[in-house]
Amino acid sequence: MTDGQNLTLPIDSIQQDVEQILFESNLIVQADTGTGKSTRLPVWAAKMGRVLVIEPRRVACTTLAGFVAETLESEVGERVGYAIKFDYRFSDDSEVVFATPGVVLRWFSEDKLKGFDVVMIDEFHERRAETDLLAALLVKQDHHRLIVTSATLDNQRLEAYFNAKAIIANAKSYGVTTVHHSRDSQHMPSGRSIEDRVKPVVEQALARGGDVLVFLPGKKEISQCQSMLKSLEAEVIPLHASVSDFDRYRALHQSDNQRVVLATNVAETSLTIPGIVTVVDSGMERRTHQRNGRTALALHAISKASAKQRAGRAGRISAGYCERLFGEHAPLEAFTPPELEREDLTETMLAAACCGYVLEQLPFLSNLPEKSLNIAKARLSEMGALDEQGAVTEHGKRLYPLPIDSIFAHLISGMDTKSNTEAMVDLAAVLQTPMTVWKRKGGELALDNYQRWNVLSCDVVTSVAVLRGEQPTEIIDVDELALEEARKLSSSIREALELPDWDVASRFSREAFLKSVLSVAPELAYVRREKRQQAFGNGFNEVTLSRDSDFPAKPQSAIVFDQFHLAGRGVKQTTSYATCMAPVSFAWLVDAGLGEESISEFDDSDGVVVDVIERIYAGRVIGEYRQAAKGESLIRALATQIINGELLKGTGERLVREVKYWNLYQSLEDAAKSTEVDVLAWLEQALQDLGVEAAEDLELIEGDDFVFDGIPSWEFDDFAEKYPLELNLAELKLDVEYQKGKRTVVVHHAGGNRKDGPKRWELPSWSGWKVQYKKASRVIDVR
């Protein structure tokens, strides 16, 4: 490949060294953003064959492909192309293809990337889950020449892992002056009132001249700062994963006006934003991490490596400035932990299996958490996506190509009718779009109108209607950019499954659809907590009703299709919020076979013993029915009635007294060797030994037939008198407890109107025992 690149970049000085190393081995290039590594290296590598560049972000993928194509005087899609979700512009003749990791993983599962000779993993230091998996697959396969670029990682470690040689390329810098806006030098970055703290710093930076780049944790903070800065005489431009093409163009191209670019980590690497003189760093990012087996999203302080990357955005065109909203000696961690160490591994494990490998057997740069591996394996096994050996099943192969999380792919593949499949595709498309597709308009009137239109306030009904353009526009606000993304996703899945497009979708029955969901993924069923009505559980997890859902107050159960997890203050505290809920009835849960049955009580109606059987799910009774008692259930019911005095009057009272004294007798003789007898269990066994099989059999039995072999009869009365279990004094009833180890008798208040406790002379002698009186939580010695 020849090129027409006239622009000189810092990396150009090492072109000869790069090409020589590449001819001999794999290559590690350590270089800051702005050196030209992402645009030059693929072109140089193309001399060895067709090049695939794995670029972690979609914005960078399309932008870099356009830049390289322009410098080679070619159109995008010809010599240089790209492939991102829903957008492919390349051909078999394209010599360089930029692609996102998710796309590359699917290609790897199809043909192990045999159409490429060189694979370049750009910005490897970000340690994204899909990128780490691709690195492990490529190292294991060892069929491609590899180029790995990294701004911050340990080169020696990377050289050993990739069997590569390293080279360093430094970006030209006019120097960056760093200022810390904190009274305490160890003050950590904070997400509190970021917009208030950013504004004065941005105003000072604009007065200095040049454009300003502000790093913020997410879209929410960008929106808040954009509102706060709207009065400035400068263009305020948002830059995050879901901005419009117009805003993206404004951010990546200089203007005659001063600009303030409000960006997430998307601007930290890969993309070069021209004209930046000052970087304002909040020191915060939104990052996932594992918390109690869940991937929780939370605000985190950035690492030292990220802080260095951000500062490096200034000083490229003139002397630069980095204004940090935290202390100079804040104890930041050295590097951001890899995603594979802090996120759920379900999708990663399925991807590895579809590529022909067991995840645990691949060579990763760092160890994978054992707990996360076990959780992922269990989930995929329950779905039937993996077999006992960890290999992908045919069902798993059907799930993986769908560009959505495995649980939604599993739901789609399990629907029982075409209309239900289409509804699940459209719902999944809405829920899997990173942006919020719809929100109900605010106000009581809008809520009333919403509930008239969607009688059950079912989020599923609204989501599917919005995707299909059937929602009342006066009630529902729709983000058109997000809706376009969701419709692209729906169309992509529908095409893969040979279904009609969303605009000619089949009508579906809400009840039939939700019952089908329950049959495929019963774990999505949640029931309300009786004492905390905002909380729902499924026996394993608990979720809290999110403000994003209009789930009504009355329904006691729901299918929860989507939730997000936020880390709390405690080390193990995580709150899960349900954001897409569909009300269902307890009867539907019973029909789906959820819960366990247990006998809650029995009823004696007209001489027939009847069991009251409850079906319990996640601590709630979801169903109840009655049936004639039989077997062990009947025996237990009869034994209970005898003890309660309802049958064989006096027998139960006698047996309870004899068993209680026998248990006391044993404990006083030798507590270590004593075995406490349960009177109910003893009586059940006695009934079985007497051959009782039906209630009418008791007519042939008398109370004297139940003989408990405990304290010998000649000793019983003396023992009971010496060690009574109950005492009736004047206006005072007492229960007696013997604590042999402490040689203490505790008499518990059991009733009576006496205000003061018992006197010692009123009690048995209990020679050698200490005596205490306990009423409520108060304990006093009886002297």
From TrEMBL:
- Every copy of the Helicase C-terminal domain together lies at 193-376
Q: What top-level class of enzyme does the UniProt entry assign?
A: hydrolase
Residues crossing the lipid bilayer are none
Q: What InterPro entries does the record point to?
A: DEAD/DEAH_box_helicase_dom, Helicase-assoc_dom, Helicase_ATP-bd, Helicase_C-like, P-loop_NTPase
The UniProt record lists the Helicase ATP-binding domain at: 18-171
Record-listed E.C. numbers: 3.6.4.13
A GO MF annotation of the entry reads: hydrolase activity
UniProt entry keywords in alphabetical sequence: ATP-binding, Helicase, Hydrolase, Nucleotide-binding
Supply the Pfam families for this chain: DEAD (PF00270), Helicase_C (PF00271)
- CDD domains given in the database record: DEXHc_RHA-like, SF2_C_RHA
PANTHER family tied to this protein = ATP-DEPENDENT RNA HELICASE HRPB (PTHR43519)
The protein in question is named ATP-dependent RNA helicase HrpB
Organism lineage: Bacteria, Pseudomonadati, Pseudomonadota, Gammaproteobacteria, Vibrionales
